[in-house]
Amino acid sequence: MNSNEVSKQLLDSLNTRKDKTCIIVDGEWGIGKTFCINPLISDFEKYRYDKFIYFSLFGKKIDINVVEKSLLTQLLLSPIASINKSSKGKMLSNFSTALAENLGIKINFDSILNNINIENIETTEKVLICIDDIERKDSLISMKDILGLAERISAKFSVILILNSKKLDDDDSLSYNLFREKIVDDEYIISSIDENLIKNKILDVFNSDNISDSDITKIISIIKKAECSNIRIIEKYLRLMQNVNKRICDIRQKTGFQLNGNYIETSYDVVAYKYLNADEKDNGVFKLIKNVSEHTFNETDPELNFTISSLGRDLTEAEKDAFDILEGYTLPQNELDTLICKVYNKICNIDTSYFSSQECLLLINEVLKRMRFPKDIHENLLELAKKLYVYKISYLYDQEIRPFTLDEANNQDESTDKLCKEINESNYNTTVEYIKVNLMSHMEANNSSEYMILFNRSFDAFKEEETTFLFEQFKLLYEQILTNYSDFYIKCLNDLLSALDSDDMINFLEEKSSNSNTYKEISLLHALQNQIDFYN
Q1: Are 318 and 346 in contact, with CB atoms under 8 Å apart?
Q2: What ranges in 58-169 are assigned the alpha helix state H?
Q3: Mutual orientation of helices 333-348 and 317-326 as an angle, nearest 10°?
Q4: What is the rounded distance in angstroms from the CA atom of residue 466 to the CA atom of residue 267?
């Protein structure tokens, strides 16, 4: 089944099932596993659930106890869950002591969590828990631990496990095959990518290029022929075609989709070469593409830095002019003077239609410096770079946001190197500012799901010096949770706890604790302190 078929069956099953269940969604990376549960993330009430908890194991150096306590924290912070009577007695002495010691203000939340497990949670509401990226878990967690936790969860709540079983190591694969049939009610295996998902991705990338149905069919046929089921690689392919198409449109002074079959096929070959296994790269086609792929991804051969950057592509007008200037000895003096004057005027007029890319600006700067051009063009080129950098965020659930960065290794002179560094810094600042504005906009609108999506995709884009902003986000999320609770806000708060300085967090929590006057805030404070202890 493809991702859309699995999603429909999964959601239909959850919508009609009255009892608790344990479900597995299995498939290769990028095939659309998380896509299947996106409707649950944004609108779990539609499927008759009162609470949805999402937990990814990717990148977390934790054991199974920390996973369970994190789930317990999210459950206990919700008004729909409580602790059963048998467990209340078990933890009564620790709880009472904590209350007495803190004059009835503080609660030893860690002590509570140490004396209960997920089976002790009582609720009359329907809860769905999703554990994702299981194959990317830390070695501290075994597959047997995961399946054991899933079995205990399914005694109280419904649970979905998402993984790529082909990426499990031998021990985990053995445990997975041995135990999963004993605890899993339904298993969905995504074996192919949904063609409509590819088509929608094509329309999203080429939304203003009037791409025809025949061109869409051609692109899809190449993807299917190559048996590519990774949506991330498919998007890299589409983005490369978009870039090539833009350059061709600039040269021909036309709009719309201008690529013929050769361009379409070659664009895929360039991207595929980057991700194929080594033993698949020996045939003649990929030897031909090797040079193109290496240059396209800026990996090798600095001598090719300012030459044709993809197979079958014509040079832009600015690139042609630059190379003509470099070979100025072949031109009459008056033609060379006119050409240099033309380029200089384009720079002074901040002509973004002439300079089609930031890389082209570095080329022009280096060429004019070689010609000992006397005018100072640095500030104009930097202004051009800023205008050429239009940062767009498309809401893909699995793609990180990172600033576009020019390669600083291949610059031939000090002036070009300085310009390159300043352009990269400008790109970073523009990207971060865009992220900040959109995060604040989502929070002000209390759009918690979109906030979490953008937060997760952009978290790694922030440098260390942005910790002030991240700390401000932490404080804003804290207040937002008290007034407009959301599981998505809690997840973002936990991510910040693992990234920010623990001393700053502790000082903040102590200040809040001294002024807290509601049970809800007291509970939140101790849950956060508990998480800090885990990370330390």
Answers
A1: yes
A2: 64-76, 85-101, 109-114, 143-153
A3: 140
A4: 37
Low-confidence ranges of the chain (pLDDT < 50): 85-107, 276-313, 394-398
Q: Which CATH number is 1-81+123-192's, of 3.40.50.300, 3.20.20.210, 3.30.70.360, 3.40.50.1100?
A: 3.40.50.300
Q: Which helix (H) or strand (E) holds 456?
A: helix 448-458
Residue/partner pairs of 472-481 with CB below 8 Å, 24 or more apart: 473/439, 474/500, 474/505, 474/508, 475/508, 476/443, 477/443, 478/512, 478/524, 478/528, 480/443, 480/446, 481/524
361-412 tens-digit pLDDT? 888 888 888 888 888 889 999 999 988 886 655 433 345 566 677 766 555 5
Domain spans of the chain, in order of start: 1-81+123-192, 195-298, 317-432
Q: State the DSSP string of 32-88.
A: SHHHHHHHHHHHGGGGT-SEEEEEE-TT----HHHHHHHHHHHHHTSTT-EE-HHHH
Cross-strand pairs, 160: 23, 130
Strands 121-122 and 82-83: antiparallel
Q: Are 201 and 238 in contact (CB under 8 A)?
A: yes
Task: Return the structure tokens found at 340.
Answer: 């240099």
Q: If residue 16 lies in a helix (H) or strand (E), which one and from where to where?
A: helix 3-16
pLDDT digits (tens, 9 = 90+) for 122-173: 877 888 899 999 998 988 899 999 999 999 999 889 999 999 998 899 899 9
Predicted TM-score (pTM) of the model is 0.48
